[in-house]
């Protein structure tokens, strides 16, 4: 009543202020977030300006602002995000259970970028680690450990029983904590294993640390009590690292007001879209505080309850674009990665794409490329007059879509000049000249003009943004017209406050209180009473907290259960909204129906006979808190058009504007395309209806802009196939570890595009498809689907089953395209469970073999025939048929469904452009990859000739059994071609390290892509300039019945080492995947384990990471101990195992598994006798070691490959190899080996969101 209310979004570049005045009218204001010459704090300055201008009273800048006129303040801020990106948080120490000091460094053990040999990964957030000698383990029914000492048994909050194996020694902890304090570190993060359910040890450490004087103590059991130590550890570190920074910011903010804002209601936006009081605003929940306001803003203003059409929010900034979706309720994720840190906290699913106004423009090997590099705010785009590079903003300026006269004059060194069209044009003319030189245009007609080049980049930028949106949901509606037409959407809604929508959203948001606790109950009749009791308790806590903030009447309560099927990892956070309670459910709702319906929607099937487990209970309570035009010339697809320019505030309601037009207000510019129509709504917002774009017919001759667009389209097809395969598969390997690849091939079987890049699948499927074309010829009919895994037909190893579908077109005799998917099946028979035997000597012992098997004939799935084939290995001595037929059949059906989706998408592309055009561009994309490889070989040859005068390079390395792998490469400098000759390589071996030809080709494509060093389409063009000579009968081209399971996982790594050694690219990485599996009648488990990466000419090797031909994630320690009869005693880096040098190699890891039951352990490893080499004077790394500590005290060396029966109390100790060093160690330089300075993450904008998580998971396989 009669007061000013403020909603403020403090962004990285601008701060937006939305004010509601005492008379009910509204005002918006935009100012720079940092302007130290003029004011200390932007939000305070915004409030001061509004008060001063609206009341007419003078509010001096240097004095605290009088708060008597302020009702409430709501804020969203990027303070936490920026501290995380810039790595400028508080100095922090981590206190962790003994044996796990490097757990957060190793993380999931996967590297973020598959082809980045430097493996630049963000640093951990803590400076020091204290290991605490305490240990709690879950009690297991079948445990047979021969331990004599009596142990204390305790009850966890989940209902699980735990045994305290080692009690906490507070005296030694106190000594360590005092040492940390004496070094000036006052922020502490505490992570003890299994504290999510039993937190007594963490609480005792927390109380001690606070008593000793730590200013911030974050306990993982309080910050986020969820199972999985690694993400919980990252979350607690982020909390300890960021909360002091937020407090510091709040202290500065409140000091700008009289009485420190004591009597003003101040609320902050959290990552989940809810507001929380200022004093409860903490680091782990603040990371998306800024963008969350924008999601709330568009959700409340543009979603219609009556039409119920999903809305896509599109928020394009300088360095990145945020994309999100709202369909009646907020879409939350409970684990997401921001700036390289995985946080376990509820957050809105906001997908950040590295494409914004500041994204840089490049022309590489005949391709238009946009981003992901950004010009940032400084120097900014070239039109900012600070010597910056060409960006998307420059392209818009050159095309007349931005009007310098309507922009503030804040550019140039003196910050007093307008945007510079001349600078942008100068850069574009130079780029157009390069492009035309590359195209060798014969006549002036085909020369590309500056405008055509700029327009080309805009189209490629739009296509780059469409890809994640297609992935976010396969059918969307969307906020941006060019993208709209590319995605086939019909309308765009632009709110009148779209330029300050995050701030406006803050004014509309609810105040939220959330409580959550872990649980281990089965969702069944027997546990409903206990679940209801716990829900009531959490609801009461929520209601009391909100009641204390005077929200007694209008409180809305939502209950969620985190549910999953027993034995799977895919848990869904399920609300009972729309599923009221009944006699067969909890009182709070029918969660079983909610879960099964959502599971069916997400994954395409349910598992009716499987129990449903409750992992967490969560309660969320929310308290509910209001014509003149000029013309300009603007460039579109057809050339320059007269474009009307309108000022938004001068347009009357219901006014309709035909495109092309530009609508401008002080916070934003809207471009209405020629085929569109804009209308002003009653509320003063703009709604744009998208017309159909008169598609200019595309010919078969090369258009470089269309080349980039087709490259995105082909990749998008392979990616969408992958989404379908993951959703419809059932096994852990495909659904959760994502061990699969999907690809599109031309009519000759040549690879066109390949999604989920498991390096060992790269290019290998091409051999399989081409084999089928030769073998089946005219016998391939519409409605047929082929299954193959035979190594002599292009297979890698037998568990990788490839499903191939030919795509036919009416009126064309043979297939016009092929689509295929390859997935790793957990078991297909053979001598050991898991079909990965360490001691096989023939192919038949490794499982079922398919050469050209028709899985589907005339559209009918051949279940009987394929079942018979999968059970066939049982006829060989000591062998069994598949041990998991149900999963095999389900996953094969999923692969058929993924191919079906691929065929549809290929058909749609052909419908849109015509077969001739699509096949022509398929050829152009392959030529583009070929060109990039030729350029790289020419460059290498030139350098080599100057250094040594020779154009031949060679290298050799050895397997552990002494088999040599030898390579000689002859390069033709004129053509940019090369012959890779493996003559001299050792013969086929008695054992399973033989590698089929397809594996060598995959390793070769992987190496070439790493050496090219930029994004190129991975297709058959990569191998066009290369001829490969492999002697028949060698380990790299074995006979038909040779055992090959180790070739895929071990020999492939050695081939990479040899190629990189020849080209002197980097030192050897660990050269092994460390395949470990164990099992008994009740359970089976398989993992591959990280080691050290090789150093290179400008980098130290990364420690504890997967390298080269694999990238699988490792199971979290707490999940491992919960589900399997094992205790993880240690998982840390192996000190001193990396090779020394000017740049030192990465260190391997130590992993110790103590077994609680009888199991059979299988190990399949390499580099146990040979050592990973150093290069250019760098030293070799330590080789690996597999040790067994028997319960009776004996210690055995198991060797590299074996299978052994273990007793309870036996411990397997794995020491993985390090990476080699690079360059001679420089005398007296201690600094050379120290880790390079803490990395800032601003080189390219870090992406985030569920689409990004999915892609990372796919690359992390």
TrEMBL record:
<feature type="domain" description="Hydantoinase B/oxoprolinase">
    <location>
        <begin position="704"/>
        <end position="1224"/>
    </location>
</feature>
<feature type="domain" description="Hydantoinase A/oxoprolinase">
    <location>
        <begin position="232"/>
        <end position="514"/>
    </location>
</feature>
<comment type="similarity">
    <text>Belongs to the oxoprolinase family.</text>
</comment>
<dbReference type="GO" id="GO:0005829">
    <property type="term" value="C:cytosol"/>
</dbReference>
<dbReference type="InterPro" id="IPR003692">
    <property type="entry name" value="Hydantoinase_B"/>
</dbReference>
<feature type="region of interest" description="Disordered">
    <location>
        <begin position="1222"/>
        <end position="1242"/>
    </location>
</feature>
<dbReference type="InterPro" id="IPR008040">
    <property type="entry name" value="Hydant_A_N"/>
</dbReference>
<dbReference type="GO" id="GO:0017168">
    <property type="term" value="F:5-oxoprolinase (ATP-hydrolyzing) activity"/>
</dbReference>
<dbReference type="InterPro" id="IPR002821">
    <property type="entry name" value="Hydantoinase_A"/>
</dbReference>
<dbReference type="Pfam" id="PF01968">
    <property type="entry name" value="Hydantoinase_A"/>
</dbReference>
<feature type="domain" description="Hydantoinase/oxoprolinase N-terminal">
    <location>
        <begin position="6"/>
        <end position="212"/>
    </location>
</feature>
<dbReference type="InterPro" id="IPR045079">
    <property type="entry name" value="Oxoprolinase-like"/>
</dbReference>
<dbReference type="GO" id="GO:0006749">
    <property type="term" value="P:glutathione metabolic process"/>
</dbReference>
<protein>
    <recommendedName>
        <fullName>5-oxoprolinase, ATP-hydrolysing</fullName>
    </recommendedName>
</protein>
<dbReference type="Pfam" id="PF05378">
    <property type="entry name" value="Hydant_A_N"/>
</dbReference>
<dbReference type="Pfam" id="PF02538">
    <property type="entry name" value="Hydantoinase_B"/>
</dbReference>
């Amino acid at each position: 009543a009669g007061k000013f209310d403020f909603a403020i979004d403090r962004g990285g570049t601008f701060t937006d202020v939305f004010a509601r005045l005492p008379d009910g009218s509204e005002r918006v204001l935009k100012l720079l977030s940092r302007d130290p010459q003029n004011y200390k704090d932007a939000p305070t300055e915004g409030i001061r300006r509004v008060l001063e201008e609206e009341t007419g009273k003078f509010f001096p800048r240097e004095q605290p602002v009088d708060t008597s006129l302020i009702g409430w303040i709501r804020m969203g801020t990027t303070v936490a995000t920026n501290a995380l990106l810039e790595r400028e948080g508080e100095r922090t120490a981590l206190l962790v259970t003994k044996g796990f000091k490097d757990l957060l460094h190793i993380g999931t053990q996967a590297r973020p970028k598959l082809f980045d040999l430097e493996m630049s990964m963000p640093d951990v957030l803590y400076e020091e680690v204290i290991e605490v000698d305490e240990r709690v383990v879950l009690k297991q029914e079948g445990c047979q450990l021969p331990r004599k000492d009596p142990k204390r048994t305790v009850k966890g909050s989940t209902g699980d029983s735990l045994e305290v194996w080692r009690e906490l020694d507070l005296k030694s902890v106190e000594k360590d904590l005092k040492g940390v304090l004496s070094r000036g570190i006052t922020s502490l993060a505490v992570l003890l294993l299994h504290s999510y359910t039993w937190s007594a040890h963490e609480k005792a450490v927390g109380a001690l640390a606070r008593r000793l004087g730590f200013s911030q103590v974050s306990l993982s059991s309080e910050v986020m009590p969820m199972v999985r130590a690694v993400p919980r550890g990252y979350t607690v570190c982020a909390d300890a690292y960021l909360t002091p920074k937020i407090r510091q910011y709040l202290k500065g903010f409140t000091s700008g007001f009289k009485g420190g804002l004591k009597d003003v209601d101040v609320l902050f936006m959290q990552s989940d879209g809810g507001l929380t009081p200022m004093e409860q605003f903490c680091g782990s929940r603040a990371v998306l505080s800024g963008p969350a306001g924008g999601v709330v803003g568009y959700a409340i203003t543009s979603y219609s309850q009556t039409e119920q059409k999903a809305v896509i929010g599109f928020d394009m900034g300088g360095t990145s674009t945020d994309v999100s979706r709202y369909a009646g309720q907020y879409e939350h994720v409970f684990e997401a990665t921001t700036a390289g840190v995985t946080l376990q906290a509820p957050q809105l699913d906001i997908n950040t794409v590295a494409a914004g106004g500041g994204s840089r423009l490049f022309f590489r090997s005949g391709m238009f490329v946009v981003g992901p590099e950004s010009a940032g705010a400084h120097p900014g785009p070239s039109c900012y007059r600070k010597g910056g590079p060409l960006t998307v903003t420059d392209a818009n300026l050159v095309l007349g879509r931005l009007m310098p006269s309507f922009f503030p004059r804040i550019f140039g060194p003196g910050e007093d000049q307008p945007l510079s069209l001349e600078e942008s044009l100068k850069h574009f003319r130079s780029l157009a000249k390069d492009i035309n030189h590359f195209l060798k245009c014969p006549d002036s007609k085909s020369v590309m003009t500056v405008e055509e080049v700029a327009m080309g980049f805009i189209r490629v930028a739009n296509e780059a943004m469409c890809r994640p949106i297609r992935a976010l949901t396969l059918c969307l509606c969307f906020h941006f017209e060019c993208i709209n037409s590319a995605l086939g959407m019909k309308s765009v809604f632009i709110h009148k406050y779209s330029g300050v929508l995050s701030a406006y959203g803050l004014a509309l948001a609810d105040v939220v209180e959330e409580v959550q606790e872990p649980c281990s109950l089965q969702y069944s009749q027997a546990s409903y009473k206990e679940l209801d009791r716990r829900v009531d308790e959490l609801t009461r806590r929520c209601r009391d907290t909100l009641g204390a903030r005077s929200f007694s009447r209008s409180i809305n309560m939502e209950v969620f259960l985190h549910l999953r099927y027993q034995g799977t990892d895919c848990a869904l956070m399920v609300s009972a909204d729309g599923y009221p309670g009944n006699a067969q459910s909890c009182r709070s709702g029918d969660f079983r129906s909610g879960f099964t319906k959502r599971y069916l929607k997400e994954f395409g099937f349910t598992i009716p006979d499987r129990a449903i487990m409750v992992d967490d209970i969560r309660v969320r309570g929310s308290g509910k808190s209001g014509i003149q035009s000029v013309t300009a010339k603007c460039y579109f697809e057809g050339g320059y058009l007269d474009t009307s320019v309108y000022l938004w505030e001068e347009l009357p309601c219901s006014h309709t504007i035909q495109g092309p037009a530009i609508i401008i207000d002080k916070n934003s510019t809207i471009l209405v395309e020629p085929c569109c129509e804009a209308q002003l709504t009653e509320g003063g917002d703009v709604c744009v209806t998208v017309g159909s774009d008169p598609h200019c017919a595309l010919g078969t001759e090369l258009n470089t802009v269309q080349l980039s667009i087709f490259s995105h389209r082909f990749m998008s097809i392979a990616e969408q196939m992958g989404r379908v395969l993951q959703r419809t598969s059932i096994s852990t390997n495909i659904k959760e570890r994502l061990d699969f690849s999907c690809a599109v091939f031309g009519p000759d079987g040549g690879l066109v595009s390949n999604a989920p890049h498991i390096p060992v699948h790269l290019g290998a499927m091409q051999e399989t498809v081409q084999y089928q074309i030769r073998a089946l010829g005219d016998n391939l009919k519409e409605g047929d689907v082929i299954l193959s895994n035979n190594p002599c037909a292009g297979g890698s190893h037998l568990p990788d089953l490839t499903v191939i579908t030919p795509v036919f077109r009416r009126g064309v005799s043979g297939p016009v395209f092929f689509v295929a998917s390859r997935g790793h099946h957990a078991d297909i028979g053979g001598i050991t469970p898991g079909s990965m035997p360490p001691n096989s000597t023939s192919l038949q012992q490794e499982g079922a073999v398919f050469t050209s098997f028709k899985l589907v004939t005339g559209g009918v799935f051949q279940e009987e025939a394929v079942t018979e084939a999968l059970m066939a290995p049982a006829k060989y001595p000591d062998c069994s048929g598949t041990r998991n037929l149900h999963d095999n059949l389900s996953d094969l059906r999923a692969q058929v469904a993924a191919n079906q989706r691929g065929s549809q998408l290929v058909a749609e592309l052909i419908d849109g452009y015509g077969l001739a055009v699509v096949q022509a561009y398929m050829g152009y994309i392959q030529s583009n990859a070929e060109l990039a490889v030729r350029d790289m070989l020419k460059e290498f040859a030139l350098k080599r000739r100057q250094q040594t005068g020779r154009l031949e390079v060679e290298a050799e390395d050895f397997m552990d059994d002494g088999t040599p792998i030898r390579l000689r490469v002859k390069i033709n400098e004129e053509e940019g071609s090369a012959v890779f000759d493996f003559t001299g390589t050792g013969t086929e071996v008695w054992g399973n390290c033989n590698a089929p030809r397809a594996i060598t080709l995959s390793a070769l494509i992987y190496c070439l892509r790493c050496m090219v060093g930029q994004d190129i389409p991975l297709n058959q063009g990569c191998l066009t300039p290369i001829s490969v000579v492999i002697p028949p009968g060698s380990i790299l081209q074995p006979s038909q019945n040779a055992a090959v399971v180790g070739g895929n996982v071990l020999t492939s790594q050695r081939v990479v080492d040899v190629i990189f050694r020849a080209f002197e690219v980097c030192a050897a990485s660990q050269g092994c995947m460390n395949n470990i599996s164990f099992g008994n009648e009740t359970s089976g488990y398989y993992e591959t384990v990280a080691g050290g990466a090789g150093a290179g000419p400008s980098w130290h090797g990364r420690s504890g990471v997967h390298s080269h031909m694999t990238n699988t994630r490792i199971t979290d320690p707490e999940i491992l101990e919960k589900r399997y009869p094992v205790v993880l005693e240690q998982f840390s880096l192996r000190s001193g195992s990396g090779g020394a040098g000017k740049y030192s190699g990465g260190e391997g890891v130590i992993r110790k598994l103590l077994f609680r039951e009888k199991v059979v352990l299988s190990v399949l490893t390499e580099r146990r006798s040979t050592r990973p080499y150093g290069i250019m004077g760098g030293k070799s790394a330590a080789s690996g070691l597999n040790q067994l500590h028997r319960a009776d005290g004996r210690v055995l060396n198991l060797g590299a490959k074996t299978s052994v029966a273990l007793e309870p109390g036996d411990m397997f100790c794995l020491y993985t190899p390090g990476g080699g060093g690079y360059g001679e160690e420089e005398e007296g330089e201690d600094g050379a080996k120290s880790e390079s300075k803490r990395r800032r993450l601003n080189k390219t904008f870090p992406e985030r969101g569920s689409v990004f998580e999915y892609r990372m998971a796919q690359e992390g396989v």
